[in-house]
From TrEMBL:
It holds the Pfam family VanY. Residues 1-21 are annotated as: Disordered. CDD domains: Peptidase_M15_like. GO terms for molecular function: peptidase activity. One of its GO terms (biological process) is proteolysis. Residues 91-170 form the D-alanyl-D-alanine carboxypeptidase-like core domain. This is M15 family metallopeptidase. It comes from Candidatus Ruania gallistercoris. It comes from the Bacteria. InterPro entries: DD-CPase-like, VanY-like_core_dom, Zn_M74/Hedgehog-like.
Amino acid sequence: MSITSSSGPAHPADVPHPPAAIHTRPTAVRAACAAALVAATLAACGGPGTSFPGSGSGAGQDPDGDGEITTADGLLEEPVSVDSILPAVTSLDADLLAAVHQAADDAGAEGIEVLITSGWRSVEYQEQLLAEAVAEYGSTEEAARWVASSTESRHVSGAAVDVGPTDAAYWMSRYGSRYGLCQTYANEIWHYELVTEPGGECPAPATDAAT
């Protein structure tokens, strides 16, 4: 069912959440194990996962062990304003960011604060998220419902943004099309892309990123 209609989702309790791993501070050991697991699983399955939502909240080792994932990779320790000067925001596609700015201004006039929980991500950061999702869910098939490979992620290309908190996500789901912003996955009410012209009709979201 499309949730970009004027009726909106039924209740905040219905909102799914990103994998728990994305909200924790991973240790180097965990990240290394997760990376090994995803590499082995991908080799067995012969292909990558697909797309992801959500914000990151703690720095950790990148999958190759070359260094920590930091704000330079698009990591956000906490939700930030659309005016943030962090790379997660400033490296977004310019048209997407402009649309989010306008939406946030209008939502703010209604008493709803729109924050960015995740935006642009480096290849290394996306690979870490994929490794963590596979470690949490136990398979690339389930992880693919939430996390894209670094070559497929719309976050890596700067073409996707995740918003919060819940009331902001619901507001965006209902009114985002005014700005050309559409919720592209039904299980990710926080994830928006510039899909249509301002005032256009958003297509029905895919069931999830693996669809």
